[in-house]
Design goal:
By secondary structure, the protein is of the alpha/beta class. It has nine helices and twelve strands. The strands form two sheets. Strands 1, 2, 3, 4, 5, 8, 9, 10, 11 and 12 form a ten-stranded mixed sheet that branches. A two-stranded antiparallel ribbon has the order 6-7. α1 links the parallel β3 and β4. The chain is globular and about 40 Å long.
Length: 231
């Protein structure tokens, strides 16, 4: 079953479609500690104190961002205090760049071209968009070992390689994984589902309102069985 959530970049409830039952909302410095509206709060920059304040204010769940990169035990402390189901991860990502180099030392008779990556992958980005060289699949695997299995990965899925990477994460995390587009204005959501195996998709309001068009019959409810089919 495909589930779609609205990913709001503002506290203005007027921009959120009324039919959005699931809502992710970005937290911003200086905001009041929202949470009573049932939104899952995303902390791009927020620290442990901010996360705790949001959870105490009634946010059902907080997704931690950049702060976890420098403090891997942060989710564990919050999970111990508020429960593991209320703590997750926000992971902005992009495809890791591949560079090539010539190896002229190991064998003087010929040159060997060596890629910087043995296999493609997504890397985690900091809140300012800079690269970390930390592989998303490895990082989420380590967090899952620690009991944190909910994650929202925001990444542009552009080709078959990205679809394969998405499918791998879905296999590892199952329904604990949400995927959201990055800068894409017309994401191929049907391909995300068919080939990337995505079942949990978070979309900004404009795309959320067009989800039925972008997903096509994948969102349509199954037709009731006839008497002949039941027999």
């Amino acid at each position: 079953m495909i589930r779609c959530a609205c990913l709001a970049d503002t506290v203005d409830t007027a921009v959120v479609p009324a039919e959005a039952e699931l809502l992710f909302r970005f937290d911003e410095p200086g905001q009041a500690a929202l949470g009573h509206d049932g939104s899952t709060m995303i902390l791009r920059h927020g620290d442990e104190a901010r996360a705790a304040a949001l959870l105490e204010a009634g946010a059902p769940q907080v997704l931690l961002g950049e702060a976890v990169l420098s403090d891997a035990d942060l989710p564990l402390r919050l999970a111990a205090r508020f429960g593991p189901d209320r703590v997750g991860l926000f992971v902005p990502a992009r495809r890791m760049a591949v560079s090539w180099s010539f190896d002229t030392v190991s064998n003087a008779d010929f040159r060997v071209v060596t890629p910087s990556l043995c296999e493609p992958g997504w890397e985690i980005l900091r809140a300012d968009g800079s690269a970390t060289a930390i592989r998303v699949d490895w990082w989420l695997g380590e967090m899952k070992k620690r009991g944190i299995s909910t994650a929202l990965v925001q990444v542009d899925i552009l080709d078959d390689t990205d679809l394969n990477l998405c499918a791998g994460l879905v296999e590892d995390l199952g329904e604990g994984l949400w995927i959201a587009p990055g800068a894409q204005v017309e994401p191929a959501l049907a391909d995300w589902v068919r080939y990337g195996k995505a079942t949990r998709i978070a979309l900004p309001p404009a795309l959320f309102e067009r989800r039925a068009v972008l997903l096509g019959d994948l969102l349509a409810p199954a037709a009731p069985m006839t008497d002949m089919e039941e027999a």
